[in-house]
Every structure is written in structure tokens, then in C-alpha cells.
Design brief:
The protein has helices spanning 2-14, 26-37, 42-62, 72-91, 97-121, 274-325; strands spanning 69-70, 129-136, 141-148, 155-164, 169-172, 186-193, 207-212, 216-219, 228-235, 241-252. The protein is an alpha+beta fold. The chain is elongated and about 160 Å long. The N and C termini lie far apart (172 Å).
């Protein structure tokens, strides 16, 4: 059991402060606890517990050199590979240089993950303000880590946009590190009309445009008078601003269309002489006479028919009287 105790001491003490946060992982603590209890000798168990506790204290003291924090993803990745190396080490337990080789490899894995986190995962914002949720390696509790930009300003750049009248413009102020912002921040869009960049603007010059959870807005059917400076602020409900992006939008009018001149055909000059005027007059007179003749013929025909009907009626009456007399 003595060689196993020496191996555990080497395992816990020789790894650098890079894996200082591993004691915050429950699986790692259970792994060490199971290994300690696997010893049949109570004396050895006590000694291994003392070594483990002292190593955890050393972790907390030295982790400050590496910011002393870690995020959940890096802790999970580090813990998984640590357990794999630990199990391989215990399965192929060999004293001497083989154990040293395995532990050196494990240290390289831990260094790789935590170095990447410090370089890329911790405070990835190059501008603005980020309150990142990380785990404190001293207390093993999550806390908020304030990440200020190198310039200590919320300004995250200025973009120039151009669009034609009647067209559209897309404003998008999303930055990759916005995913790490705590809470439910919203994007506040506002704009200041006028030619952008010609004068210094104050807060009172901006008009509220829209407040949305989406990072982008689309401006449709643009007019020339919508030229101006557009601003996007990412902020929480308490008014804390995390980033600011400015858009200088210029709406250009459509080019004036030159219409083609329509040439009408030239009609011949009308001849208003007496001979030409006589023809329509004669046509009108003939038409009128025809109408009068038609009306007269209709009247005469009606009178004739009426007289015949009256004569026929008198004859029939006279004939009936003669027959009655006889």
C-alpha cells in the first residue's frame, strides 16, 4: 500500500496551480474519496486524507496566479480529461518513470484547457462592459467577474451605411460576447436626423426608435429625410449599458427620370369653304324632310283606317234595323 500512497501524493501535489479549481468539481472529490477509502489500512487512509486536504489548500493559495476563476465549460472539460488520465494511471499503476510520464501528460492537458480559457474564454470582450459568470476557485461558488474593455468605454465602433430612396437598410449591433451577458438585456435603437457626421450630437438629439431582444432591425421604404445617425445600446433593466454601436446612414434620392417627348401626327388643315359647308346642310335638310314625310304618312294612314271602321259600323247597324222592320 505504500507505493499507492506515494503515487497519490505525487498526483495531488505535483500538478501545478492550473488545476487548482478541480477541487470544486464534485466528481473529482468523489474520485479522490473513493481512492482513499480503497485502502484497507485506516492509517493509510488518514495519511492520504491529510495529503488531499493540504493539496486543496495549496490549490486555493496558488490559483490566484491564474485569476483564480474558471467557467463551467472549461471546468467540465478539464474534469473529464483529468478523470480519464486518473483512471488510466490507476489501472496501469507502475512505480518509477512510467508514473512520472503519465502525470506529465495529465499536466499538459490541464494546462491546455485552462490556458485557452484565460486567453479566450475569460473576458472575451474587446470593447464595452461584460459581467461574466465564473466559479471562484477559493470558495467553489459562482460569482460575477467584471470585464472592462481595454479603453474602459462602452463604444464598440461606428459603421457607415448607404441606401437608395425606397430601399432598405439592416442595422445589426450583435457581438459574440453578448451571449455571456447576464440577465435579459435588450437592444435600444435610437436615431438623430440630419446629415451624419457633420456635427457633434448630444443625448437630447436622439429619438427613441425601438426596444427589442433582437440585435438587428430592418428599415424599409426609406425616405431621404431618414438620413441620420443611428445608435444601438445594449443595456439591462437597471440602465447599465454594456455596449454602444453607431451607424451613419445616408439615403440617396432616386435619379430623376427624363421623359421622352411624344410627337403627335399633324392633321391636315380643315377646309371651311361654302361648298364644303353646303354638303352637311343638305344632308340635314333631307333627313328632316324624310322624318316629316314618315310622320305625315303615319297620320294619314291612321285617319283612313279610322274612317273605314266607322263606315263599316254604320252599315251593320242599318242592316240590323232593316231586318227588324221586316
Amino acid at each position: 500500500m505504500r507505493p499507492m500512497l506515494l503515487m497519490l501524493a505525487f498526483l495531488l501535489c505535483c500538478l501545478p496551480a492550473l488545476n487548482a479549481c478541480l477541487q470544486c468539481d464534485r466528481d473529482i472529490r468523489n474520485l479522490h474519496e473513493d481512492f482513499i477509502l480503497s485502502s484497507p489500512c485506516v492509517e493509510n487512509q488518514i495519511q492520504m486524507q491529510q495529503i488531499r486536504d493540504q493539496t486543496y489548500v495549496s490549490y486555493r493559495q496558488t490559483s490566484q496566479k491564474r485569476k483564480g476563476v474558471i467557467d463551467s465549460v472549461t471546468l467540465y472539460r478539464t474534469s473529464t480529461e483529468y478523470q480519464n488520465e486518473f483512471n488510466r494511471f490507476m489501472t496501469n499503476l507502475q512505480p518509477g518513470c512510467m508514473a512520472l510520464f503519465i502525470m506529465a501528460k495529465s499536466r499538459n492537458i490541464l494546462e491546455k484547457h485552462l490556458d485557452v480559457f484565460i486567453r479566450e474564454g475569460l473576458c472575451p470582450n474587446k470593447c464595452g462592459l461584460l459581467n461574466q459568470r465564473v466559479m471562484d476557485c477559493f470558495t467553489c461558488r459562482f460569482k460575477t467577474y467584471k470585464c472592462s474593455s481595454p479603453s474602459h468605454q462602452q463604444d464598440c465602433g461606428e459603421h457607415t451605411l448607404q441606401a437608395e430612396e425606397g430601399g432598405q437598410a439592416v442595422l445589426d449591433c450583435f457581438l459574440p460576447w453578448h451571449r455571456l451577458v447576464l440577465g435579459k438585456p435588450e437592444y435600444h435603437y435610437s436615431w438623430a436626423p440630419g446629415v451624419s457626421g457633420t456635427e457633434k450630437l448630444s443625448e437630447s438629439d436622439f429619438r427613441s426608435l425601438v426596444v427589442t431582444e433582437d440585435s438587428s432591425v430592418v428599415l424599409n421604404q426609406l425616405h431621404v429625410d431618414e438620413t441620420g445617425t443611428y445608435r444601438c445600446l445594449l443595456q439591462n433593466q437597471k440602465g447599465v449599458i454594456f455596449s454602444k454601436v453607431t451607424f451613419l446612414l445616408t439615403v440617396t434620392p432616386l435619379p430623376t427620370q427624363t421623359g421622352k417627348t411624344l410627337t403627335l401626327p399633324i392633321l391636315p388643315d380643315a377646309d371651311y369653304s361654302a361648298d364644303n359647308l353646303l354638303v352637311p346642310v343638305l344632308i340635314a335638310v333631307v333627313t328632316a324632310l324624310g322624318l316629316v314625310a314618315s310622320v305625315g304618312f303615319t297620320v294619314v294612314l291612321g285617319l283612313t283606317m279610322n274612317q273605314r271602321m266607322q263606315s263599316h259600323g254604320r252599315w251593320e247597324k242599318k242592316e240590323r234595323l232593316t231586318q227588324y222592320t221586316l
